[in-house]
Amino acid sequence: MGIYGSRNLYYKYRYLILFILLSQVPLRADVPGILSYQGRLVVGGTNLDGTAQFKFMLLDKAGAQAYWSNQGLSTNIAPPSSSVSLSVARGLYSVMLGDTNLSRMAEIPASIFTNDDVRLRVWVSTGGDFQALSPDVRIAPVGYAFRAQSAVTADRANSVVNFSGSLAGDVTGSQAGTVVSRVGGASAASIASGASLANAATSANVAETIVRRDAGGNFSAGNITGIFSGTGAGLIGLNAGNLSLGTLPDGRLSVNVPLLNASQTFSGVNTFEGATRLTNGGNVFIGAHAGDGSGLSNLPPVTIGAFTGALDGDVTGTQTGTVVARVGGTNAAVIAAGANAANSATSSNAPDSIVRRDASGNFSAGTITGIFSGTGPGLAGLNAGNLSAGTLADGRLSANVPLLNGSQTFSGVNTFAGATRLTNVGNVFIGAHAGDGSGLSNLPPVSVSSFTGVLNGDVTGRQTATVVAQVGGASAASVATGVGLANSAAANNLPGTLVRRDTSGNFSAGIINGTFSGTHVGDGSGLTNISMAAGALLVSDSPQDSALVAGGYRLTTTIPSPAWVNGATTGMPDARYGHTAVWDGTEMIVWGGTFGSGQYAAGGASYLPGLDQWQWVSTINAPSPRSDHTAVWMGSGLIIWGGANASGYVSTGGKLTASTGLWTAISTSAAPSARSGHVAVWMGAHMLVWGGINANGLLNDGAIYNPATDQWTALGIANAPAARSGAKAVWAGDRLIVWGGQGAAGELGDGAELIFAAAGVPSQWIPLAAVNAPVPRQGHSAVWTGSKLIVWGGRNAAGPLADGAAFDPASNGWATLATTNAPAARYDHAAVWTGQEMLIVAGSGAAGELASGCSYDPLTGKWTPLSGSGGPLARTGSTAIWAGSELIIFGGRANGQPVGSPQRLVPQPAWYFYRKI
Questions:
Q1: Using CA atoms, how far apart are residues 653 and 668, in angstroms rounded to an integer?
Q2: CB burial string 354-389: b at 16+ within 10 A, e below
Q3: Residue 332 has what DSSP assignment?
Q4: How confident is the model over 846-887, as pLDDT tens digits?
Q5: What is the pTM of this model?
């Protein structure tokens, strides 16, 4: 559709208006807004991956008048001169139009949406000229919400004496028996247990308790295991003669030690911060002098002589004859006259004088004439007989005077302001009653089964969704977090957790900083002066272990790590990417994917590492060709679902039964909408699908599939995470954990847990903690260790990433992974869990595909490089499985071309043996 420079780039363009958000600002006449916009860019039939330049404009339907562009307000329909740089991943790009946090992006005024039909025009360049994408996109009516002034909905309940309905949510029970069942997502029993443990914490060495430091920051313990390092401020009796390495810094010298410059003189820029006294009267100082001169003496006096010029302004004249000419803009003569008149004022009846009231506030006057009006509460001696006109108002009558209406009865709206007592028991009152009814008796009880008012105080929300917001002045989230930390306290060396002593009063730790006394056990690699018998043999993972060498050890034997081994290629599936691979316990099953150029695979093969052989998987009744689908192993077979092919997104799937090798189609009734980039996990008896993207945009819905009944059940759980594609998910035994991916506004750094009830029914989404969470990313990896989710790598707008963190569902907390010896930054890599370690291998780095890899041990927090011998292939987008004792990797891309090349690695590190001499 367009020509860029000397290259023809054909764009297949699909756009999606995903959603529009209003900034959280006070309402005013014109509220600036932000439009979230997403599109897909295909270059030469391939989804673009990389960075492109975009220009944006809002204009009328005819394209004759511009309202706004990314460089500001304009009526010129020519393309903006400046462009916005956006990342494009798998053809998908998104931008927050009007977000001034983006470089070269101007704010969108709400006044634009006074126009009936507003269109968005987009220009794009991938390195050459800019080309306008067609057609222009009409802004959906929701954009005109920017013009809304206010929208208020209020439910009010003035007072409720009683109600009979049951509360729900965090507070349950009836009015007379409310029970706080949960606080911040944690059960009340857990809250009570954690609070008791936390409140009972002491600094004493008491077994099975949480440790609280005393007022001095110290605490007692039994045996402390760990690696000891840190500051030695509390150590005494150190011998200066034992200093054999390093240079003593100047800061450790006494202030009495002078410091020379490089010329061994004091003519440089030496600074003496202490007081310097030079008592020789012959001292001479040359240069600029600065500082406090109050102590100097014998300085010549400073005098200022007379001046001869004339003053100007309100004060005029010369130095010896100044005159005040004006005061506050009024001439001096008027000021003087007024002052004299004011000073001579009295309370006497003196004509032509200013009146001053006497000490009581009164003054005398002659005859006062005029028309008097106003209130006369100070007048006395008035004669009622002198009232010759007007009608006396009812309000001027005594309260004892009854007032009749026009019919000479009391059935009107007469008001008796005083107390009225009617003592006849036959009295009857008809009409509306108002006032204090506290003295009434024999009233029937008021029963309210529901109310619409909002609770306030520590418990908030409505009757059917009460929430405990505060406990003892602390927020519910803080209470729940504290309780979770307290309940999960253990004696183990777990970073970011509270410490609970074991039954003997001991606990394990990593690096302990402080003053150490008592018995030390555990890893003594940081300890010195330890005697070992000659000939003792120790093993290390370092070929140059300086600590062992310093301790008198010598490297004697090395066992290198195993090399990569190439797998069989006979019968191997064609090279591909976008495929899936699962491990069934004895073999790796590869299925689907793409060969590039719009060619999609509809078959696969299984690899038996024990025999180093491939065998083809049946294609009879197999699912249609596809890529970017999901695959799960259900214990007795393989389930394939979703993905995309040349016809678009797919909502079908199939089951491969291992015992028969036959495919069976999956029901499409109630199945999720077609999608790719979604997640799928096996829950033990069901497959769960969530998220992804299709032609309508990003998704945050899903469903559960039961292979035994061939039935789908929609999730339908409120508060799901934001819609996304390319997220990573794991099944944690009783919950789904989802994190990261590509959202409407870019990479995401959040996630959630889908909690399941005891009956295996999904019950609620709970957001993951944000504190210490990894930065937003896509193309990352995630593994489940049995107790934690580990996220690593990926990429965002800044490029490939080389960091990660571990999430503990028990404490809802993140712990950052160490970066020392971590793999090079990468995305779209492969990651597997071996039962003890996470293996990271291959992927795309800043300079292209990578072949290197590392293992990560969460117990020690250490990274160890994987073997590079044997010729591991640099690739990205590959699949990898753990086969019980080795890593097997297959497929992917290299230099833009699909690859096959199965390779295997036993990830045993190199061992280095040292002998004591």
A1: 8
A2: eeeeeeeeeeeeeeeeeeeeeeeeeeeeeeeeeeee
A3: H
A4: 999 999 999 999 999 999 999 999 999 999 999 999 999 999
A5: 0.48
